[in-house]
Design a protein that fits this description.
The structure holds two protein chains of two kinds. By secondary structure, chain A is an alpha+beta fold. Helices cover about 65% and strands about 10% of the residues of chain A. Chain A is elongated. The model of chain A is unreliable at about 1-20, about 335-345 and about 690-715 (pLDDT under 50). Chain B is an alpha/beta fold. Residues about 120-125 of chain B have low confidence and may be disordered. Classes of the chains: A alpha+beta, B alpha/beta. The interface of A and B includes residues 481 and 704 of A.
Chain lengths: ~725, ~120
């Protein structure tokens, strides 16, 4: 605004001065006029010279030269006549009269020719004399002589000599004429050239003068203008034209200056907007990043306050139909913080909430907030005016913080240093921050809810693990008595046991084992789930592992007439792992194979080195698992419909445990099964597993009993 | 030769009885107590050759009893057989400590006790 006002006065003197200067148009017209005049003058001189030359040479060629020739011809004719006459007189030969007659005939013709030329009067007089002398020579001497009359020869000679003299005289006159003309011919070009040179020099001088003027008034200013334009282009925003030049160029300079001023104003405005935009982005970015509402709010209101240069920014949450405000964030500009007593501000919160209560709440919800540029100028209700007066507010902005249509609260901006104009830009900033804040608060709320839920689930999971763990332990205590007394009984510690009694005790013992196996599986799974299962890392010889497992299962397989085929060509190949857990994997899979294969089946155990690991393949010719159920294989307590139909006992935990252990060893497991044909389980274990187990090896000398070991011990 | 004195710390009466019956033939003098506090009191008054220790006890638990045992210099080498449903594997750095998980087979308990009482002790089997 200041710039615009400042720009105006400069125009007036510029215009005034431009009136005193020649216009470029006039300058150029002058140049054109000079050039045309120069061409015309030089051309005129040239043409005049040429005409003079033409006239002179015409005179020379058409008058003087023919006159001289005629003069000589006339003399020649007379000489011919005289020579012929003398020959005749001396010889009497008539033939000499031919030249005489020729001369007599031709002389008057030559005289006539001479007269035909327009010659000066003095020359005409001489010609008259010549004609007279020639005619008299013929009449007074030649004709009488030829006719044989005696004539004084001297009279003829005198006439002739006289004629000769006149001829000489005319010849001289003509010679002078000729010389004069020739001299003139020589002089004309010199004069013409000289004139042209002088004219040209004069015009050159004028042209130089004009050129200098043009340069001063047009070319140099134009260059200056170009320099200014280039400087402006190059980023020198202060570059301005100050040319003194032809009116038009000065006008162009003025226009350029105005353009530059305008551009400068635009740029300043754009930069300010960009700055605001960037600051806004920072604020919004922070809001987006922070899901914890508390940390984001203080920083956000502080940024917003600094950005807009207000004195206080509050974010209030409004609760209930009679709004009670809770300050989520409160920021005061440093200057006001030192002077203003913040203590009494607190009770004002509820008062400030008035600003967002009915009927103003409608304004907030429907109009997206309200902006008071000058509180003093507003006709405000008493209560509102009182609230603002207590805050010493001179300008106020309130913008709702909404989540969808629900009003969560409001951003309140207070300025205390007089009225201020809430520009569109300001309003946009506040609205955008409020909008983002609404979203962020909603997200934070949801996020908090999620966190709470995760915590609850975690606690639930933990209590489940605790429950499984303590139940397993609590079950083991009574089982200790059962197992112990069973053995004592069967070993006869309490007296002789009959065969029937022993058989019954064996059933009790077998089911106790089952119960113990189930408890052990549950506990193990619970450990795998909670990550508390320690996995040792020792070299384990695969061939040995397979041998032990097969030996363990062999008695069970024998009871069902199964053939157990081992195909292992591993030699001393070892893998890093927990021998106990790996053996359990094999035992679980082999006992499954035995269990789920009808009597007289084939169980295969194959082991090969594949890649950087060992592949174990356990196949059976059992009942298989229907395709539709295969995706549940590793779910705990999953029991295939075929197993249930055949009433094959099991807990449905074995494969889940296998899966967990193989995973802990960094291996993979795949099961390929066809109902009624058989099952093929393929396990791949890396030879040296980078430990995925965070717990350190425990180096136990008495590993806790696993179901496998337990069942082996029981056997 | 007087029979070996074995302190049994076990709160479950049935298991106490089971162990008693099991060790009857081994010719040991068994002194059963039902709590950790009672065990510590007994140890302060009567020297023993072996402690059979349950871990889950009312009041002071088995680990507390073990600390009390080891806190006296003369008892740092006293053999202790932990008989528990809990996984005691991470406490087994002590060479004079053995572990028998519950449920146990009485014959296994008898074998272990016999082994722990036979000098010199060369660690668990």
């Amino acid at each position: 605004m200041h710039d615009i006002v400042a720009g105006r006065p400069e125009e007036a003197p510029a215009r005034a001065s431009s009136r005193s200067r020649p216009s470029l148009r006039r300058l150029l017209l002058w140049n054109l006029a000079f050039s045309l005049t120069a061409i015309l003058v030089a051309g005129g001189v040239g043409v005049a010279g040429a005409m003079a030359v033409a006239d002179t040479s015409d005179e020379l060629v058409e008058t003087v030269v023919p006159a001289r020739r005629n003069n000589l011809l006339m003399l020649q004719h007379l000489l011919d006549a005289e020579t012929g006459l003398r020959g005749y007189l001396e010889t009497g030969d008539q033939s000499y009269l031919a030249p005489f007659r020729e001369g007599r005939r031709a002389f008057p013709a030559a005289v006539a020719d001479q007269r035909a030329l327009s010659l000066p009067a003095e020359v005409d007089a001489l010609i008259d004399t010549q004609e007279d002398l020639g005619s008299r020579w013929f009449a007074e001497y030649a004709d009488p002589v030829r006719a044989g009359r005696e004539v004084e020869p001297r009279a003829g000679k005198e006439l002739f000599d006289e004629y000769r003299a006149r001829t000489e005289e005319l010849s001289e006159v003509l010679q002078v004429d000729r010389d004069r003309l020739v001299e003139r011919l020589d002089r004309i070009p010199v004069v013409a050239s000289g004139t042209i040179v002088v004219v040209v020099l004069a015009f050159v001088a004028l042209t130089v003068h004009q050129a200098v003027r043009t340069t001063r008034l047009a070319v140099r200013p134009l260059e200056e203008l170009r320099t200014t334009v280039e400087a402006l282009e190059g980023g020198d925003r202060k570059a301005r034209s100050s040319v003194t030049a032809a009116a038009e160029i000065e006008a162009v300079g003025e226009a350029l200056n105005q353009l530059a001023d305008e551009s400068q104003r635009n740029r300043t405005e754009t930069e300010r907007r960009l700055q605001t935009g960037r600051a806004l982005q920072t604020i919004i970015g922070r809001i987006h990043r922070a899901l914890d509402a508390g940390t984001v709010l203080e920083a956000t209101v502080a940024d917003l306050g600094r950005l807009l240069g207000v004195h206080r920014v509050l974010v209030l949450t409004l609760a209930g139909p009679v709004p009670r405000a809770v300050s989520l964030a409160d920021w005061s500009a440093p200057a006001t913080r030192s002077t203003a007593d913040r203590g009494p501000d607190e009770p004002d919160l509820d008062a400030l909430a008035l600003l967002a209560s009915e009927p103003y709440r409608q304004l907030l919800e429907n109009e997206g907030g309200y902006y008071l540029d000058d509180v003093a100028a507003e006709d405000l209700p008493d209560d509102i005016a009182a609230v603002l007066a207590r805050q010493q507010a001179t300008a106020v902005a309130i913008c709702p913080v909404q989540s969808g249509t629900e009003m969560l609260g409001a951003i309140l901006l207070l300025a205390t240093d007089g009225p201020r104009v809430w520009t569109h830009e300001d309003q946009r900033c506040v609205a955008e921050v409020a909008n983002e804040l609404g979203t962020a608060l909603t997200h934070a709320r949801l996020f908090q809810r999620e966190l709470d839920m995760v915590d609850q689930l975690r606690a639930l999971d933990q209590s489940k693990d605790d429950f499984v763990s303590s139940v397993s332990h609590e079950l083991r205590t009574p089982l200790t008595s059962i197992v112990g007394y069973l053995e004592l009984l069967r070993e006869g510690d309490a007296g002789e046991v009959s065969e029937d009694q022993d058989r019954m005790l064996a059933v009790v013992e077998r089911n106790t084992e089952r119960l113990l196996g189930l408890i052990a599986d549950l506990l193990l799974l619970s450990k795998i789930d909670s990550g508390h299962l320690g996995t040792e890392r020792h070299p384990v010889r695969i061939a040995e592992l397979i041998g032990d497992a097969v030996t363990t299962v062999a008695p069970l397989a024998a009871t069902k007439d199964h053939q157990v085929l081992v195909d292992a060509d591993l030699g001393d190949a070892e893998i890093e792992g927990d021998a106990g857990q790996l053996e359990q994997v094999l035992l679980n899979l082999l006992s499954n194979a035995v269990k789920f294969t009808p009597g007289g089946g084939r169980i295969g155990v194959a082991a090969h080195l594949v890649g950087e690991g060992v592949e174990l393949v356990i196949t059976d010719t059992g009942i298989g698992i229907p395709d539709a159920e295969q995706h549940q294989l590793f779910d705990r307590f999953f029991r295939s419909s075929t197993a249930q139909a055949d009433a094959i006992p099991g807990t449905g935990l074995g494969l889940a445990i296998v899966h967990g252990i193989v995973e802990r060893h960094g291996g993979t497991i795949a099961i390929d099964s066809t109902a009624g044909v058989g099952t093929c389980v393929t396990i791949w274990l890396p030879r040296s597993s980078a430990s995925s187990d965070p717990s350190p090896p425990t180096g136990t000398a008495w590993p806790e009993l696993t179901p496998a070991q337990h069942s082996r011990a029981a056997r | 030769m007087s029979p070996a004195n074995v302190l049994l710390v076990e709160d479950d009466l049935d298991i106490r009885e089971l162990i008693h019956v099991t060790l009857r033939r081994a010719g040991v003098a068994l002194h059963p107590v039902g709590s950790g506090e009672a065990a510590v009191a007994h140890l302060d008054l009567h020297p023993v050759d072996l402690v059979i220790l349950d871990i889950v006890l009312p009041g002071m638990d088995g680990w507390g009893v073990l600390r009390a045992i080891r806190s006296v210099p003369e008892r740092t080498q006293l053999p202790v057989l932990v008989v528990s449903v809990l996984d005691a594997s991470d406490r087994l750095t002590d060479p004079h400590l053995a572990h028998l998980p519950k449920p146990f087979r009485p014959s296994e308990l008898a074998r272990l006790v016999e082994h722990l009482l036979s000098p010199p002790t060369e660690g668990p089997p």
